[in-house]
């Protein structure tokens, strides 16, 4: 074969390859690539802050050694509300925030935190007096005390239950229990019973309030770290979708612990007559850029030909 023939053959093969590549590209829809992720990057399960409705802390009124009856329920709820916010600073936890009781969610859905102090037993050993309550009810033994005395914390037990409620039905999703063993050496303190006649005074004028706060913080920490929280209600809304680039903008950001390279499912909300809305998975997305109040994500894959529309909801997609 001559040199000219060989050159001609090479030219023909070159243009044939170009033409084949062009046809293949024109016939195949290109999948947008997530600019926030490098090849081989492992997706992360989101741990967004979830809003919870607080109920009254379960407790019983009891008699102090000075014969004053105290009820701690309102003050215990205030302490619990403050400690709930602290869960947002726990690494790799599903932080919690307190829901406004007037807020409404689709189909009456909500998360409800129910806490209780099931046992609270204290003792003034010098006078042989025990006070507080257990499952059997309030208890007090011995003589009346009106001055200062050393109080020893006996048994304190707290339970924390997270319920997921929808359409009037609630079921338990996570639980935690703590007791006085957390307090270690902080189980004795002086109390001037002549200065205490109300529940708030017993908590704030003695170290008892700090002991309760420490136990609540630990119980909530256990609850926030429970893997079961990945399965409970949380959602954001799609605010914008650009089909040409596969960009999805939704209304949750770093203020709710959203971070880059986290995976979510987009659901279409389909109204149903006489019952709650029906949800259909339409796409898997992954965050690429996170701002304080919003996040940008790209589509990993579509799950339905309908595609994504503003108003669709975004929920957590666990990866582990």
- The fold-level CATH name of the largest domain is Rossmann fold
- Average pLDDT, to the nearest integer? 83
Tally of helical segments: 4
Q: What does the largest sheet look like? A: 8 strands, mixed
Approximate helicity band: 10-25%
**Beta-strand residue fraction:** 35-45%
Number of strand elements: 16
Cα end-to-end separation: 63 Å
Shape annotation: elongated
Structural commentary:
By secondary structure, the chain is an alpha+beta fold. It has 2 domains: 50-230, 3-Layer(aba) Sandwich (Rossmann fold); 234-316, FlgT, C-terminal domain (Thrombin, subunit H, Beta Barrel). It has 4 helices and 16 strands. The chain has helices at residues 3-27, 73-86, 199-204, 208-224; strands spanning 50-54, 62-63, 69-70, 96-98, 110-124, 129-134, 137-140, 148-166, 169-179, 188-192, 236-242, 247-250, 263-270, 278-290, 295-302, 313-316. Strands 1, 4, 5, 6, 7, 8, 9 and 10 form an 8-stranded mixed sheet that branches. It is elongated and about 80 Å long. The protein starts with a helix and ends with a strand.
Per-chain topology:
Elements: H1 3-27, E1 50-54, E2 62-63, E3 69-70, H2 73-86, E4 96-98, E5 110-124, E6 129-134, E7 137-140, E8 148-166, E9 169-179, E10 188-192, H3 199-204, H4 208-224, E11 236-242, E12 247-250, E13 263-270, E14 278-290, E15 295-302, E16 313-316
Helix pairs in contact: 2-4
Summarize this structure briefly.
With 320 residues, the chain is α+β, with helices and mostly antiparallel strands.
